[in-house]
Amino acid sequence: MLRGGTVGRRFTILYAAGFLGSGIVLLSLTYLMSGVRLSTRAPEDLPAHVPGGPSGLAAAEQQIRDLQSRLSDAHGQQEQRLLVASLIALAVTAGLSLLLGRALAVRVLRPLRLITAATRRISAENLHERLAVTGPADEVKELADTVDGLLERLEASFAAQRRFVGNASHELRTPLATIRASLDVAVAKPEPAAQTVALAGRLRTELDRVDHLLDGFLVLARAQHGAFTDRTLVSLGELTREALGHRATDFAAKALVLDTEVRPAAWTRGSAVLLSRMVQNVLDNAIVHNQESGWIRVTTDGDGSEARFVVETGGRVLDQGQVDRLGQPFERLGVARTGPEGSSGLGLSIVAAIAAAHGGRLALRARPEGGLRVTVTLPAAAPEGDAMRAGMVA
To answer: What strand order describes the sheet that includes 295-302?
Structure first.
């Protein structure tokens, strides 16, 4: 029984058992010590000469027997009352033991609960926070200091990783620009060879892919760093309308049927540039990995606490276990999701990072009928008067 359940429950049982055991021992000693019986004298020990002769002796013996009987009855009643009182006291002691054991368990485990709650609040976006437990140098403070040390090492590791991605992406743009300029010079020569032109075209395509990949790395690093200086009130509905307008040609190229329900109530606060990129990535993912003559349903709405951006697509039935991994970098659903477009596999991971950096979340669900449902949920923000009227007019 002590091996199962929570630590608080085990502590409660242990404390209650200790208090109850002490009460049982105390009541048992009290009961045993109260059980000393009065000694009596047998009739044969009485004096040989009793005034009044044989009749007086018989009367005295009878009185003694009556007195012994009454004393025995009184002692039995006393023992019975003491036993009942002891059982009642034992029941009360059991109840008080549980209450006191629970109170002590809560008191003892309170610092651990505070440490657990504080640790849960710390994620990759706020690794700078520390538990900073104060008090005597006991086991609890030692545990808290150990967790703080671990968080400090994790923060340094995450920061180094983000700096590396950002610096590497910036540094790689210079040689890419040089290669692109060299290709332009080679093709610009009078009467360039056909092989040179074909090679330059293929190299430009690959350079575009690498440039797109580096751009994704930069956006991902910025989103994961979470330090925005351009936080402002943003309408997900307006961002969605702009992104849909820019992709009208892409919808027509695949003959996709578009169903939209864009509401102006989806307001949030954050980086307009990153949130716009988030919306674009979700739409691009829906277009690129959709089937010919398929459909896309786009919805934005919100309430007092959340703003939601939802994109659904049709297609084959997907495995939820594989879908759950799409929020990680370079994850794809097999060859069918790579395609000739050369997807880098960073699109949804960037969406997840941007949503998390804004205090939101990305949810990916495989539709039972086939296809994918992408839901981005962000904290809602109350629109200002001018922004509200502008959204309603749009």
So the answer is: 257-262, 295-302, 306-313, 372-379, 361-366
Write down the pTM of the prediction: 0.55
pLDDT in tens, 172-215: 778 888 888 888 888 888 888 888 888 888 888 888 878 777 77
More confident residue, 122 or 341: 122
Task: Name all domains of the chain by residue range, CATH numbers in brackets.
Answer: 7-121 (no CATH), 139-225 (1.10.287.130), 231-393 (3.30.565.10)
Closest CA to 280 of 392, 394, 183, 374: 374
Distance CA 21, CA 3 (A): 20
Per-residue pLDDT tens over the stretch 77-112: 777 777 777 778 778 877 887 888 788 777 777 877
C-alpha to C-alpha distance for 23 and 386, rounded to whole angstroms:
73
Q: Output the 3-class SS for 339-364.
A: CCCCCCCCHHHHHHHHHHHCCCEEEE
